Amino acid sequence: MRKLTFFLLLVLVMAAAVSCGGGKKDAAYYQAQIDSIRRAEQVKLMKHDAGVYDDPVGHFFDTLQLCPLPIESAGADIGRIGHFSHVPPAVASLLGFPVDTPLRIASLPRRGKCSVILLAQGPDSIAPVLTMVTLGAQYKPVDELTLYEQARAERGEEDGCNYQEYYITSGYSVVVMTFFQPRGDGKAQLLGVRRYVLDEEGYFREEILEL
Fold first, then answer.
1. Which residues pair with 177 in a beta bridge?
2. Count of C-beta atoms within a 10 Å radius of residue 197
């Protein structure tokens, strides 16, 4: 790929040489242009080999594991979905979190012009919060949808917690089901079902479910 890039740049320099009015610039000038391009390519290669990137944030997102769709709820066990990478401070800040927030991230297939990620908050806890986030230009958040979290709750005389289960189709239809789990061995109770469609602009649009 780098050889191809250098070749294309060389062609552009030579084309400029032909179009510059009957050779007003001598061969030494164009050789200097070619040498300059070659040095720039060599510097880029050296920086890449040393792990230094002109766009470190973009490079980080490029290295994320892609989790294929469809995805079925994994509860608190996010490892069943795929590999989640640790989020560095610069990316945490870009996503709107304090830099010391424990976060892990995985990538989903793009939707339109937007990148789509899964973001796990508190990934090492027994109840991480899993959020689906869309990113626009320069990886700025566009919209988000909580897929899984646990929260203490009461229903009548019963104490327990609410939690979500979810399903993401290959066409980016997302179903989120909310349950109440009583303390002990009680049976989980379905509280509600909501369905969303992720449009190509990166927004989650809720669809009305027909009962």
1. 165, 193
2. 14
Tell me which residue of 99, 110, 140, 106 sits closest to 120, measured CA to CA.
106
Q: Which residues contact 132 (CB under 8 A, 6 or more apart)?
A: 108, 116, 117, 118, 119, 144, 145, 146, 147, 168, 174, 204
Q: What is the DSSP letter of 210?
A: P
> Structure pTM?
0.72
Could you say which DSSP state residue 128 is in?
Answer: -
Q: What is the pLDDT of residues 130-145, one digit of tens each?
A: 999 999 999 999 999 9
Annotate 61-106 with DSSP letters as a single string: HHTSPBPPSPEE--TT-GGGT---EEPPHHHHHHTTS-TT--EEEE
Does residue 32 come out as left (phi exceeding 0), alpha (psi in the -120 to 50 range) or beta? alpha
Contact between 179 and 163 (Cβ < 8 Å): yes
Q: Residue 192: in which H helix or E strand, if any? A: strand 189-198
pLDDT band at residue 78 under the 50/70/90 scheme: confident
Alpha-carbon distance of 31 to 52, in angstroms, equals: 29
The pair phi, psi for residue 42, each rounded to 5°, is: -65, -40
For Cα atoms 138, 142, 148, give the angle at the middle one, nearest 5 degrees: 120
